[in-house]
Amino acid sequence: MTIPVLSHQNSARASAPGPALLINSLVKEFKPSKEFAAKNPHRLTEDGLHRAVDGVNLTINRGEVTVLLGANGAGKTTTLACAQGLLKPDGGSVELLGSSPWGASPELRSRVGIMLQDGGLPQHMRPIPLLRHIARMYAQPLDLDALVKRLGIDTFNGTTVRRLSGGQKQRVALAAAIIGQPELLFLDEPTAGLDPQSRSVVFDIISELRDAGVAIALTTHLLDDAQRIADRVFMIKRGTVVLSGSMAEVLAAGGKNQQTLTFTGGTGLQLVDFLPQAQSDGLVLLEKAAGRYEISGDIKPHHLVALTNYWQKLGAIPTEFTLAPRTLEDIFLELSGNEIR
Ligand SMILES: Nc1ncnc2c1ncn2[C@@H]1O[C@H](COP(=O)(O)OP(=O)(O)OP(=O)(O)O)[C@@H](O)[C@H]1O
User: Fold this and answer.
1) Is the CB of 180 under 6 A from ligand 1?
2) Which residue range or ranges hold the ABC transporter domain (predicted)?
3) Are 2 and 209 in contact (CB under 8 A)?
4) Which residue in 153, 218, 229, 152 sits closest to 189, CA to CA?
5) Per-residue model confidence as pLDDT tens digits over 270-315
6) In this predicted structure, what is the pLDDT of residue 104?
7) Cα angle at 182 between 7 and 193, to 5 degrees?
8) Is residue 131 within 8 Å of 176, Cβ to Cβ?
9) Per-residue DSSP letters for 134-191?
């Protein structure tokens, strides 16, 4: 099932000139909390401020899903709040559908859909009356009955927003963000907390919106989901973009022939035991958990031969063995480090 009406209106928008959102050299500073200032003196400006966004350049194209990645506190929400006109930056510029987002006209606002992390929905209303109310604010809303059925909202309409589960609130928040047929859609963690069925429906809806020409800016910590859905990636670390490009470019960053081999075997294995030349070939072996290993790098056929010879000598085979290209998660962890923020 696809979302009715959607393609009709948005296909014309997909060919509108220029990107849907253009952010140039964006800077946003906050007065830091005492705790932040004490723990991070090196991250304060000369004026004692915390520069949460430090020169971000970002483009969101029509007909594409763009994902913003970054550890907690990296500056994603602040960047998007500036882009949406909710925060005034201290430097740089933002063009939202060709105009400034600050003091934006109701007409401009009606072309932008925003799904917030906490839903931002009135707590006392039931979902369908709430969505009907929101739909009335738009000139050409989506077919409410079809949307509600698609997202399974009809199955919990007897409950007010306050009492909905996290995943149910997410679905209502998504419906509220797209019902006005936005040209540019901001989705904050759209698949967090969803069960597999709802997650799959949300993926399908996002793909259909993208195919209909909607520009989608998405933040998520679910890197599998990001890799599955996004066309373009911006990775933010401490307020600056550290990696950007198409998904294919980002996955190829740092070497095209990077792969990860995972297997389970006896504990305490040393790389040199079974792959004598592996270290000089630049491979890295990690024992991720007891008896569970990960070899990463430019893995060649002779490495696999050495590995199977080793197992033949032992008279054993691993209980699990996978060889896969580097994932977005591998790249994210390399760039953002393992430290918790
Ligand atoms: N109003 C504010 N006053 C002071 N500091 C703030 C304010 N808003 C955000 N910050 C700080 O700015 C930094 C960036 O926060 P932001 O919410 O943009 O991060 P994020 O990348 O969205 O993180 P998360 O993944 O946890 O949502 C954080 O250190 C945060 O504490």
Assistant:
1) no
2) 36-263
3) no
4) 218
5) 777 778 788 888 898 888 888 888 898 889 999 999 888 888 888 8
6) 81
7) 100
8) yes
9) HHTTSSS---HHHHHHHTTGGGGTTS-GGGS-HHHHHHHHHHHHHTT--SEEEEESTT
CA distance 304 to 295: 11
In this prediction the pTM is 0.86
CA torsion angle for 51, 52, 56, 61 (degrees, to 10)? -160
For residues 219 and 227, is the Cβ–Cβ distance under 8 A? Answer: no
In what helix (H) or strand (E) does residue 261 lie, and over which residues does it extend? strand 259-264
**Is any atom of ligand 1 closer than 6 Å to the C-beta of 77?**
yes
Long-range pairs of 75-80 with CB within 8 A, sequence gap ≥ 24: 75/28, 75/236, 75/238, 75/239, 76/219, 76/236, 77/117, 77/188, 77/219, 78/28, 78/52, 78/53, 79/23, 79/26, 79/28, 79/53, 79/236, 80/186, 80/188, 80/217, 80/219
Domains of the chain listed by start with CATH number? 6-252 (3.40.50.300), 259-325 (3.30.70)
Q: Distance between CA atoms of 278 and 267, rounded to whole angstroms? A: 19
Ligand 1: centre distance to CA 79 (Å): 9
Which element (helix H / strand E) includes 330? helix 328-336
Q: What is the pLDDT of residue 205?
A: 95
Query: Among residues 203, 201, 237, which one has the least CA distance to residue 218?
Result: 203
Atom nearest to 78 CA in ligand 1 = 18
The pLDDT value recorded for residue 8 is 46
Annotate 54-67 with DSSP letters as a single string: EEEEEEE-TT-EEE
H or E, element range at 308: helix 301-314
7: CB partners within 8 A, 6+ apart: 208, 211, 212
Model ipTM over 0.95:
yes
Does ligand 1 come within 6 angstroms of the Cβ of 150? no
- CA geometry: angle at 60 spanning 237 and 93, to 5°? 75
Cα 100 to averaged position of ligand 1 atoms, centre (Å):
23
Q: Residue 160 carries which side chain, given as an amino acid letter?
A: T
